[in-house]
Amino acid sequence: MKTDDYKDAAECWKAILSDVKRNAALLKEIRRFASENTTPANVVFGTSGWRGEIGTDFTFNNVRIVTAAIIEMFKTGGEKVMESLGVKDFEEIKRRGVIVGHDNRFLGPEFAASVMGLLSQEGIKIFYAGEATTPELSAAVVMLRAACSINLTPSHNPANYAGFKFNPSDGGPAGSELTKIIEENANKLTAEKTVIHEATPAIFQKIDTIKLYADFLKNRGTLDLDRIRRFISNEDCCICIDHVHGASRRRPNMLLGESTKIQYLRTENDYLFGGIPPEPSEKNMKFVTEFLGKSNSEFTLGVIMDPDGDRIRFTDGKRDITMNHFGAMALHFLHTYKNITGVLVKSVATSNFGNAIAEKLGIPIKETPVGFKNFRPYMLPDAKERAIVTYEESDGISGYNNTLEKDAMFGLLLALEMMAVTEKNIGEYLFELEEKFGAYFPERANVGVDRSLAGAQLLEKLSRLKNKLTAGSKIAVGKNIRYVKTVISID
To answer: In angstroms, how far is CA 402 from the centroid of its own chain?
Structure first.
């Protein structure tokens, strides 16, 4: 097919993703669609920002519309909005500034420039992070006392997606009290078929987010970086980190130092991620597992991170360890070995392994709806009930006194400190905890639903389960009869 044979970006993306090696050159057509397409999009901030397909709904004009919607919120937001942002007024926002960054996906720098151009026109101070991870931006907001951050990333979504995250001055994901206003402002502009022209950012300050992140970790003191570095230097260990061509590349080197004991995989540029969904899945972990399988070292650790560095999965080379298990391990380690007190905070979809540990250790449990933003009340430094650890089954984790965002680097460093302190591989540590607190085998089942069935009618059908499945109900599991212990419907 000739390049002009594609009627829209969606059709072009189908061709690209059907054979990424052969059709990568078609990305220039996606750039054209993203630049020329002014079709309005329905802007919705989900559990982690607004996401869309590049060139279809995530276009330069729509990115500028969302930016204009945020600026409008800055200008017209009342006392409650300013309180949620953590500022007094628009003048304070202009003075403290906005951090803008992006992951290393296609058109990331260009989308960031579109955002900065509009902010610059309003006289807002701009800190440009360039390629950075989500937790780095979260830490940088706090360290620089910036008013907020804008991060152009769709996290772990496939290569045809881009995304827009907005975080207020505490560094955490924006709550619905802010995102609803952004949505309303943006969708009013799209309903009017508004076209906003590109503006060149006048002045901005380039910042080093990994240095700010390292300083943040030292200031917060939850992790012992010196002990981790000594462990790597002194012990017989083999560590493998797969970045899946994402923005987390080069980050561990800067925090841990260069070492022949650490192997980094998939660090080169690849906008199409080799044709795979760039998520920390069991399937994508195979290169890490294969590498560790060749090692004879006493200590082995492998991880895979997603493109914006906010999700992580673990292995010791013998056992695949998801967040359902690692989050519970983190709870036990931080409470038992580091004497951190507080509450366990986890999303409702997460395994009850953490609950079992918390109950025996006398730790209160808080379960929230899905979405890391729901953990914020327990992660703030002045929270009455502070989280020891926060995690969700979709591979996100943070902990006591850490960033309010999901933080893959925190997970990596925590796993290394576990090994240094317990003198065990994480698989051995997990086995010990299962022997003591019980073994849990979480399973996730996905059910595909046609878009035409989504929305209120789907929610109504799902709600019927509360009447059908009640505590004490019998369920056949294979040849066995089991009884429902409890039904959780907070999400």
So the answer is: 14
